[in-house]
Amino acid sequence: MNSLRVANSLVRSNATVAVLRTTPSVLLPLAQRPWHPKLSQQTLPVRRSFSHSPKLSKRNRKEEAEEAEEEDPRGKKGGKKSNKKEKGAPAQQQQEPQSSSASEDPFNLDPLIALFQKTESHYASQLALLRSPTGRFNVESIGAIPVSLDKKSSETYRLQELATVAPLGGRRWSILAFEEASVKPIISAVLKSPDFNQQPQRSEENPLELTMTVEPEKVDDLVKRAKDLCTEWRNKLRDETHKHETHVKKNKSLLKDDLFKIKEALKKLQDERMKVVANKEKEVVAAIQSKAK
């Protein structure tokens, strides 16, 4: 009996092992499942082919240095960079007026009118000097005489930089030198001047003072001078009108009809100014001739 029991137990154990070998552990009861130690799951590194990897360009050392300068505003290089930006700012500001002038209204004649007024004030003051009792000789004209202090040097000074010019009444003028060394050069300069062509006289009371008498100009010379100034005035008006018209023609967006209208407006404005010049010329010539009588 014992031998049979041992044989049966062996048969059962062999059968159990066979079943365990052929049956998956999932289908077996929990008590009959073989024990396996739990191992930690390790994630294998993901391999990526070169075709799927992003392209990385090599960084330039100059770019890295510029970024470092921006991050450190107290650095010397960063300061230089900011100075360059500041220096570049005026250039942008200078470009703004150019762009604004390019987009200006071509029918606007105010800039040309302003030039005409400036020219008129200049020549009107020159013509007014011819009507004065002393003619064109005044403090400005006498003070503008070039004086050379050193014969070996070509450098010259205006007389009003070396002396004070003042009228004494009538046609007499006083030249008071600042230094004794300037007296003789002033006398030589006045003597060589084509407008005066005379030698100033020393004052007996003050060795630094010179006196001179301005001879009145002839009526014909004054009239000729007035007409020459008016001719120069007319030429100046024509030049300013031509420059403005040339500037307008650079605008390629204008049509032929627009250019024709602008040209007519410029001609009308120029003719009006020419009438002003003609009237001024008649007025000055009449005043000069009446003064001579």
From TrEMBL:
<feature type="region of interest" description="Disordered">
    <location>
        <begin position="39"/>
        <end position="107"/>
    </location>
</feature>
<dbReference type="Pfam" id="PF01765">
    <property type="entry name" value="RRF"/>
</dbReference>
<feature type="domain" description="Ribosome recycling factor">
    <location>
        <begin position="133"/>
        <end position="283"/>
    </location>
</feature>
<dbReference type="InterPro" id="IPR002661">
    <property type="entry name" value="Ribosome_recyc_fac"/>
</dbReference>
<keyword id="KW-0648">Protein biosynthesis</keyword>
<comment type="function">
    <text>Necessary for protein synthesis in mitochondria. Functions as a ribosome recycling factor in mitochondria.</text>
</comment>
<dbReference type="GO" id="GO:0005739">
    <property type="term" value="C:mitochondrion"/>
</dbReference>
<feature type="compositionally biased region" description="Low complexity">
    <location>
        <begin position="89"/>
        <end position="104"/>
    </location>
</feature>
<dbReference type="GO" id="GO:0043023">
    <property type="term" value="F:ribosomal large subunit binding"/>
</dbReference>
<protein>
    <submittedName>
        <fullName>Ribosome recycling factor domain-containing protein</fullName>
    </submittedName>
</protein>
<comment type="similarity">
    <text>Belongs to the RRF family.</text>
</comment>
<dbReference type="InterPro" id="IPR023584">
    <property type="entry name" value="Ribosome_recyc_fac_dom"/>
</dbReference>
<dbReference type="InterPro" id="IPR036191">
    <property type="entry name" value="RRF_sf"/>
</dbReference>
<dbReference type="GO" id="GO:0006412">
    <property type="term" value="P:translation"/>
</dbReference>
